[in-house]
Design goal:
Shape: globular
Strand content: 5-15%
Order of helices and strands: HHHEHHEE
Strand order of the largest sheet: 1-3-2
Largest sheet: 3 strands, antiparallel
Structural class: alpha+beta
Helix content: 40-55%
Distance between the termini: 29 Å
Oligomer: single chain
Number of domains: 1
Length: 96
């Protein structure tokens, strides 16, 4: 059984699992939009805990480098190694 959700439902699931910490509304919108794009290729089951383990929101590349102990010089360089979702106000980076 499947259920199609909109951003409101997506946000409510993050609230239900008490996983809003570390996410801005803009970041969650960007993540939701990204997942909708990916879902065009494959069906996705919403797993809030899994998403919080797989993706992290940062204000900048510098914050990402500091947190991860990395030294990427550009978002393009980082994107060669993992998923990068850019949005106004920050970036979301995949943990893989």
């Amino acid at each position: 059984m499947k259920k199609t959700i909109d951003f409101y439902d997506f946000l409510q699931e993050f609230k239900r699992f008490d996983r809003l910490q570390g996410w801005t509304r803009s970041g969650l919108i960007a993540l939701f939009d990204y997942l909708e794009e990916v879902e065009g290729e494959e069906e996705i089951e919403l797993d809030v805990i899994g998403l919080c383990c797989e993706f992290t929101e940062y204000k900048s590349l510098e914050d990402c480098n500091e947190d991860r102990g990395s030294e990427y010089e550009s978002l393009d360089e980082l994107a060669n190694h993992t998923t990068v979702i850019e949005f106004e106000g920050g970036i979301i980076v995949g943990e893989h």
